[in-house]
Amino acid sequence: PDLTLCPFPLLLLLPLHSRIHHTEKGSPQEDEVGEEEDTIDMTTRILSTNNGSNENLLEGDLLAPRTRNKANGVVTIPYVVSYHFSQYEKNMITTAMKAFESRTCIRFKERPWEYDHNSIENKQGCFSALGRARGKQVLSLNKQGCLYHGIIIHELNHALGFLHKQTRSDHDSYVRINWQYINPQNAYNFYKQTTNNLNTPYDYSSIMHYGKTAFSMNMKETITPSPTPTYRSVRRRACSPGTSIGSTCSTDVNNKVSYYLSIRRH
């Protein structure tokens, strides 16, 4: 069945978790900016790029909120891309946006004149505010470390209100957090959050899931998957944005469909 939804008002603010289709290599071209090596974990790349950032970041790439989120999100997401990005780099960003649009009712529109909008900028790191905020909402994609298809989608997910997968309220049933390998100052990044999981399965391959050594003091595993029937791998798996829904991609679409339908019923 076709899981694409028709447009209707949305609340893009609840702390949910999801994954959008992504490839391990950059798009639209693979031999220039955006090529991802299979040996480099996406979370490691984000945390490494953010190491020199002077922003107050939560969970490694969430910009600490300065104002309270407003529960009036809509299907159309206004945005503006900084002039610091080349046309090729802008195309990479819009290609990631189209991955959302191909299977959901989210529509990204370049509207710099709107008061509430996402401002995609070349700052020191890969990070975004969580959910919708009033006025200009910064989403940083550093040109040197963040212009990868998966990372762009990861940060767009944060802007839409989705937290990291391993902070789900039911994570104890699916992963073990190895606190002994985590610096106490970074322990908060693994705390459970109060989330509406919409009866969706825990997806180890989610693009919103930390890598197994995230925030490790000694490169030992900080996240160990529990041997559940749904276990595949903590590491993200490739799924091209234009392909049909497959076994490694359907969870993301189902999450968003369930989310939108739950909002529509209220």
UniProtKB/TrEMBL annotation:
Annotated TM spans: none
Pfam family, one: Astacin
Cofactor names: Zn(2+)
Biological processes annotated in GO: proteolysis
Positions of the Peptidase M12A domain: 61-266
Keywords for the protein's UniProt record, in alphabetical order: Hydrolase, Metal-binding, Metalloprotease, Protease, Signal, Zinc
Signal sequence annotation: 1-18
Mitochondrion as UniProt keyword: no
GO MF annotations, alphabetized: metalloendopeptidase activity; zinc ion binding
Entry EC no(s): 3.4.24.-
Positions annotated to bind Zn(2+): 154, 158, 164
Cofactor details (free text): Binds 1 zinc ion per subunit.
Residues annotated as the enzyme's active site: 155
Superkingdom per UniProt: Eukaryota
Protein name: Metalloendopeptidase
